[in-house]
């Protein structure tokens, strides 16, 4: 093998001046030539450069040894064209021949092709540049040029493209709605969305790309604020609420999650949870996958004269560092390095002065633009005869773009991992040729182990034993392209917990359309499955409760003019379930005209205006029976195009209605049949009083008999009045009622009852108070409350206090007695027939007092806040002259 210079001499070519032929007078000194050769060798070694020549007379190729070594060529002589073609990749022979022909024709351009490493068989990517040398007669005699090994750059480009394709595939396969927002000044811009967003936008998702956040969410300032906070604080934020769909205009429940993927990127994941409020919020993820490889950076050469501390730099080195005047000394050079890297640069200088190579990657600040660049610097020390470093020569390579690419790749990977962790996901890839699995870093969180399986058998060990056969069958179906999704259970290695997973997979094909890989995602849906199970259990319990209570449920959807019925609804309406729910118009034959009109108006108001309804109506069955039902309707807040969806319950209250009617009939008969004998008894007592033969004891007994009869008559009158109040037939004609006088009558009526318990009845009234009401109702109301208080006294010699005051336009009566109301009846103290622990109690006293207060436009309340004491407060309107 000959050198380049020897090849030129052997060719006998006398080249023209533009071919740079050197005569004896222009030859540099041997030392200078050696220095140039050393510098050239260093540059070639760092950049993978080589020099070649082609002798057109001998038809032989000569390539610099360093490049032949890169190709694994051990030939010791010039290369013949046939030998050279053995080195060139077979697929590039034609391209290489065309380029060679063009070069020989006088054209100069850059050619890229592949060559084969002669030892390892690996493919080497090469970039070559050549030009033709002519003799004095203008004949082409030789072809010379440079060749560069660009394999690493090509591999980096190919790996980056493959990574982009892989991440883009995963990004587009994501089932959740995913959007990437990139900061633009004080706002964000929608940069990318995955195909799942087509369902949200009605197929117009691409039209929204490039829109600003403030414009996109102009109607949702809360979401704008969340995205800004997420980008500013770097925290994961979540928001659940109503969101108006851009495709349909309907408001749906949507779960939003925002995570900061980098200082300038916010990842938004949205999940429509309107149809499955019990399901786990699915999270979507994305990444910025738009990475572009850049050309190999420029190179600058330098030399440091250690003895004089003088630096010499090439013009390109100055351009790399953005300086017009290169630094001359080490002190001038150091400030060009980034302040954080300056100490490492100085340490590298010290190592070189000790005889070691100068090899460092550091940052520098462009003195023109202020931009920060990453520079890889390599230098070779030159020693004198004493072994001391006298000079250092080297080159600087700008690798800023490569560092950026690597940073973006790391950022993308971190973004994908962050999104997978957020959604409890794991990505996978199965190589169909090697039958090997690759799993993402989030595998250990789903599995509970650091060991990642690489074979299908190892992976099946993680699958629940009951699901392994099915999973294997569905996996084979995925490899055939017959399935893209499966669900199965796994066992967490650390906790032993059974998890439910949902897997999505898609095949990747080669250029010939053959499937080569299976890629996809696995998502933990355990919480979703548990909620589905809990919902099913709740529905079973609800069905049982409806059967016990005789309550049916229905959902009225105006969009389809039909309702969904529970099983109990069919029993209440005595309809065959095979016929399905009836339409609203089918109900007309079950109602009277008036009731049906009321029913239609109530349902119409609920659908149109979200008005709830509460109806009690009879159903007239086909066999003549009457069935009473109680209907409750509650509209949903979201209104669709046809109106609000209404949820309703229907309860069969026929039995209760008949019992109430029977009780009212009995009470009415008792009141009528008992009043006549009591009135006769009172008349008889008055006749007996006319006798002069009565003793004082006889008259006392007659008085007691008359009071008892009057009490019975009052109870009957109160019962009849209460019945009219309940039935809505009581005619209220208010007058001014002196409450002090009313208490006097009550005191006289109950003094014997109080005396029996040695109890006192005390009235506190700072001034006369007159209420606007009915005198008989006021006396009966107060009598019932005071009687109830006296009977409830726990001990003898205690007192019942009655305090009468005013509050604004109301008269206030407070009846207080020692003793606490039992907790079991406090919530139903004023309900009909509510009583506890009182012998002979009917539960009508407080109920009638409440009804009589309401009949007079007043109200009552129970106060048990003071331990061991009970207070019942009555508010009645003040008479006109009493109002302040």
TrEMBL record:
SUPFAM superfamilies per the UniProt record, alphabetical: ATPase domain of HSP90 chaperone/DNA topoisomerase II/histidine kinase, Homodimeric domain of signal transducing histidine kinase, PYP-like sensor domain (PAS domain)
Start and end residues of each stretch annotated as Disordered: 1-23
Segments forming domain PAC: 109-162, 358-411, 484-537, 613-665
Catalyzed reactions: ATP + protein L-histidine = ADP + protein N-phospho-L-histidine
InterPro entries per UniProt: HATPase_C_sf, HATPase_dom, His_kinase_dom, HisK_dim/P_dom, HisK_dim/P_sf, PAC, PAS, PAS-assoc_C
EC number(s) stated in the UniProt entry for this protein: 2.7.13.3
Residue ranges of every copy of the Histidine kinase domain listed in the record: 669-880
Domain PAS: 163-228
Keywords from the named record: Kinase, Phosphoprotein, Transferase
Pfam families: HATPase_c, PAS_3, PAS_4
Gene Ontology terms, MF aspect: phosphorelay sensor kinase activity
Enzyme class, spelled out: transferase
PANTHER family hit by this protein: PAC DOMAIN-CONTAINING PROTEIN, PHYTOCHROME-LIKE PROTEIN CPH1
The protein's name in its UniProt record: histidine kinase
Native species: Rhodospira trueperi
């Amino acid at each position: 093998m000959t050198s380049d210079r020897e090849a030129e001499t052997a060719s006998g070519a006398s080249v023209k001046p533009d071919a740079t032929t050197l005569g004896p007078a222009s030859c540099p000194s041997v030392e200078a030539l050696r220095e140039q050769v050393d510098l050239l060798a260093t540059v070639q070694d760092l950049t993978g450069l080589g020099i070649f020549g082609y002798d057109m007379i001998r038809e032989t190729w000569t390539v610099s040894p360093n490049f032949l070594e890169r190709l694994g060529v051990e030939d010791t002589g010039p290369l013949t064209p046939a030998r050279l073609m053995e080195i060139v990749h077979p697929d590039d022979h034609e391209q290489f021949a065309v380029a060679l022909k063009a070069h020989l024709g006088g054209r100069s351009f850059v050619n890229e092709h592949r060559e084969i490493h002669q030892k390892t068989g690996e493919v080497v990517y090469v970039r070559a540049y050549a030009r033709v040398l002519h003799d004095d007669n203008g004949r082409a005699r030789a072809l010379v040029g440079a060749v560069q090994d660009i394999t690493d750059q090509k591999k980096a480009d190919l790996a980056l493209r493959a990574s982009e394709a892989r991440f883009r595939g995963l990004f587009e396969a994501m089932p959740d709605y995913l959007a990437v927002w990139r900061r633009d000044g004080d706002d964000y811009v929608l940069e990318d969305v995955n195909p799942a967003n087509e369902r949200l936008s009605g197929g117009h998702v691409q039209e929204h790309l490039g829109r600003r956040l403030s414009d996109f969410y102009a109607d949702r300032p809360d979401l704008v604020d969340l995205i800004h906070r997420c980008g500013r604080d770097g925290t994961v934020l979540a928001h659940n609420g109503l969101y108006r769909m851009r495709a349909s205009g309907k408001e749906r429940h949507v779960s939003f999650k925002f995570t900061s993927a980098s200082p300038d990127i916010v990842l938004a994941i949205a999940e429509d949870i309107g149809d499955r409020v019990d399901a786990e919020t699915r999270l979507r993820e994305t990444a910025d996958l738009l990475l572009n490889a850049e050309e190999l950076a420029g190179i600058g050469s330098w030399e440091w004269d250690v003895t004089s501390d003088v630096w010499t730099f090439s013009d390109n080195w100055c351009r790399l560092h953005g300086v017009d005047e290169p630094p001359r000394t080490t002190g001038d050079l150091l400030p060009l390095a980034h302040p954080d890297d300056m100490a490492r640069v100085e340490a590298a200088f010290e190592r070189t002065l000790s005889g070691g190579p100068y090899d460092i990657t550091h940052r520098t600040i462009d003195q023109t633009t202020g931009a920060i660049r990453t520079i890889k610097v390599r230098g070779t020390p030159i020693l004198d005869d004493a072994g001391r470093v006298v000079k250092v020569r080297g080159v600087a390579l700008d690798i800023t773009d490569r560092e950026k690419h690597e940073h973006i790749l790391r950022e993308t990977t971190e973004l994908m991992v962050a999104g997978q962790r957020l959604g409890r996901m794991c990505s996978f890839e199965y190589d169909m040729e090697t039958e090997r699995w690759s799993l993402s870093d989030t595998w250990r969180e789903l599995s509970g182990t650091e060991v990642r399986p690489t074979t299908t058998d190892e992976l099946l060990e993680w699958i629940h034993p009951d699901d392994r056969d099915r999973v294997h069958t569905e996996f084979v179906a995925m490899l055939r392209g017959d399935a893209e999704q499966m669900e199965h259970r796994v066992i967490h290695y650390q906790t032993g917990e059974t998890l439910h997973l949902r897997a999505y997979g898609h095949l990747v094909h080669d250029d010939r359309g053959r499937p080569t890989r299976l890629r996809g995602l696995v998502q933990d849906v355990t919480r979703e499955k548990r909620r589905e199970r809990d919902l099913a259990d709740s529905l079973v319990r609800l069905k049982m409760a409806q059967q016990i209570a005789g309550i049916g449920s229905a959902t009225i959807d105006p969009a389809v003019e039909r309702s969904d019925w529970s099983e109990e609804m069919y029993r209440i309406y005595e309809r065959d379930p095979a016929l399905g729910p009836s339409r609203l118009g089918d109900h007309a034959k079950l109602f009277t005209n008036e009731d049906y009109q009321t029913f239609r108006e109530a349902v119409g108001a609920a659908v149109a205006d979200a008005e709830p309804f509460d109806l009690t109506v009879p159903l007239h069955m086909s066999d003549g029976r009457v069935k009473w039902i109680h209907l409750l309707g509650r509209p949903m807040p979201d209104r669709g195009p046809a109106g609000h969806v209404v949820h309703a319950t229907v309860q069969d209250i026929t039995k209760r209605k008949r019992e109430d009617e029977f009780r009212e009939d009995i009470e009415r008969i008792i009141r009528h049949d008992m009043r006549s004998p009591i009135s006769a008894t009172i008349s008889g007592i008055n006749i007996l009083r006319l006798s002069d033969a009565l003793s004082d004891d006889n008259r006392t007994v007659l008085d007691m008999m008359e009071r008892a009869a009057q009490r019975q008559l009052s109870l009957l009158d109160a019962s009849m009045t209460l019945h009219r109040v309940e039935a809505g037939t009581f005619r209220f004609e208010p007058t001014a009622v002196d409450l002090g006088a009313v208490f006097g009558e009550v005191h006289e009526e109950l003094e014997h009852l109080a005396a029996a318990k040695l109890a006192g009845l005390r009235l506190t009234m700072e001034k006369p108070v007159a209420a606007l009401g009915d005198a008989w109702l006021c006396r009966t109301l107060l009598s019932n409350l005071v009687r109830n208080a006296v009977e409830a006294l726990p001990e003898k010699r205690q007192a019942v206090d009655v305090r009468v005051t005013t509050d604004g336009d109301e008269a206030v009566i407070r009846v207080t007695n020692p003793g606490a109301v039992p907790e079991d009846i406090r919530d139903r103290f004023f309900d009909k027939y509510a009583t506890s622990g009182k012998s002979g109690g009917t539960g009508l006293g407080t109920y009638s007092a409440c009804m009589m207060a309401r009949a007079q436009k007043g109200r009552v309340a129970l106060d048990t806040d003071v331990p061991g004491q009970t207070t019942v407060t009555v508010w009645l309107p003040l008479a006109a002259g009493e109002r302040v």
